[in-house]
Amino acid sequence: MSIDGKKVIEVLEKINVKMEENKAYLSELDAAIGDGDHGLNMCKGFKAVVEKLKEDDGQDIAGILKKTGMALVTNVGGASGPLYGTAFMKAAGCVSGKTEIDINDFGEMLYYALEGIKMRGRSEAEDKTMIDALEPALKAVREGISKELEAKEVLRLAKEAAFKGVEHTKDIIAKKGRASYLGLRSIGHQDAGATSSAIMLETIYQAFN
Ligand code: ADP
Ligand code: MG
Predict the structure, then answer these.
(1) What is the structure's pLDDT at 46?
(2) In a mutational test of the pocket of ligand 1, which residue from 43, 118, 126, 129 has the highest number of ligand atoms less than 8 Å from its CB?
(3) Check: CATH 1.25.40.340 for 3-207?
(4) Which entry of 109, 127, 133, 200 is 20 to 30 Å from 190 by CA?
(5) CA of 28 relative to ligand 2 center, distance in Å
(6) 77 pLDDT exceeds 90?
(7) Any idea where the DhaL domain is (predicted)?
(8) Distance 147 CA to ligand 1 centre (A)
(9) How much is the pLDDT for 1?
(10) What is the residue with the minimal CA distance to atom 24 of ligand 1?
(11) Distance of CA 33 to CAs 28, 100, 121, 147, 169, Å?
């Protein structure tokens, strides 16, 4: 199964809707160990993405992802804007010239997106960030691909691994971002960015159902 640029835009529009639905929830999570703006940041960012893609003809997938990344970097004040922005721009880099992408491309995109976040955030797994959702998701995608599972099944395993990663963020100490100021007191709380990452992956899965 492969998808074209129009479908990529449709998925991004769905992510925008999902972020609106989860705005209060994400901000609540961030309020416990951060500054309470993560839901607002994600909504502002993806609203700008949808606005920017309004007139896009859907012919150039890398271009769509680049625009997405730019919109996030430009419109989100918080740490998550440049991090997610970098992720989408790095993902764009591995599909240049493509008019259709498949699950193998998605695996590559996720890998480069994650590398971009780690580089930009100087962060790694177990820091209690979005990486703790995205890295298990990448592992699941790679395993699914190697077992030659259907794309839909691979995406299901990816979002499930991401939500498991989100649960795990409750058990660990924040080492990056605002939550790291709390040290041990960050234990017991779920990371907001890991949650928005898992929601994004869930939306991608649902878009193929
Ligand atoms: P801010 O922290 O500036 O208010 P947000 O609230 O929008 O920005 O985003 C916070 C989320 O960003 C955190 O929950 C965490 O997942 C992620 N984050 C923060 N710093 C880093 C980092 N250095 N590397 C990776 N992710 C990070
Ligand atoms: Mg915040």
Answers:
(1) 98
(2) 129
(3) yes
(4) 109
(5) 10
(6) no
(7) 6-206
(8) 33
(9) 81
(10) 121
(11) 9, 40, 18, 39, 12
